[in-house]
């Protein structure tokens, strides 16, 4: 598993509590050890996790270790980024991108006034 400071790894056993039960929106990176773009994106997500900790949680889920959740949410490619709010998926992004672009795409999640 690609571990980055500030990111929690969730599993099939912890997904409900860590993601669906979170008071904050949660950005889940569906990732895999063999995924090059996932490794590129991990430091960016670590920065966002630290900088936006009061507005969003960022976690990683290994698609090979959590196939049930991967199938449940229709994840077909890695990295897939999925934002959950109050237990429901509200946004899905596929592929690595620079931090600035990712923050632009997450603006509606990070800024409640823009919803």
TrEMBL record:
Q: Which stretches are annotated as coiled coil? A: none
Q: What Gene Ontology cellular component terms go with this record?
A: cytosol
Q: What sequence ranges are listed for the domain Thioredoxin?
A: 1-111
Question: Which top-rank group of organisms is this from?
Answer: Bacteria
Instruction: Extract the CDD domains matched here.
Output: TRX_family
Any one of the GO BP annotations: cell redox homeostasis
Mention any Pfam family matching this sequence. Answer: Thioredoxin
SS bonds (residue pairs) = 35-38
Originating species: Streptomyces parvus
The entry sums up its family as follows: Belongs to the thioredoxin family.
PROSITE patterns, sorted: THIOREDOXIN_1 (PS00194), THIOREDOXIN_2 (PS51352)
What InterPro entries is this protein classified in? Thioredoxin, Thioredoxin-like_sf, Thioredoxin_CS, Thioredoxin_domain
What keyword terms does UniProt attach to this protein? Disulfide bond, Electron transport, Redox-active center, Transport
Cross-referenced NCBIfam families: thioredoxin (TIGR01068)
UniProt-recorded name of the protein: Thioredoxin
Q: Name one GO molecular function term.
A: protein-disulfide reductase activity
Gene3D superfamilies cross-referenced by the UniProt entry: Glutaredoxin
**Could you tell me the gene encoding this protein?**
trxA
């Amino acid at each position: 598993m690609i571990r980055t400071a500030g990111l929690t790894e969730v599993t099939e056993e912890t997904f409900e509590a860590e993601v669906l039960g979170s008071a904050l929106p949660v950005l889940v990176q569906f990732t895999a050890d063999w995924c090059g773009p996932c490794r590129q994106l991990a430091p960016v997500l670590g920065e966002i996790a630290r900088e936006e900790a009061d507005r969003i949680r960022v976690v990683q889920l290994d698609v090979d270790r959590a196939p049930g959740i991967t199938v449940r949410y229709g994840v077909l490619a890695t990295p897939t980024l999925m934002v959950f709010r109050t237990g429901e998926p509200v946004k899905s992004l596929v592929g690595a991108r620079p931090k600035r672009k990712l923050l632009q795409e997450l603006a509606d999640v990070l800024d409640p006034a823009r919803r």
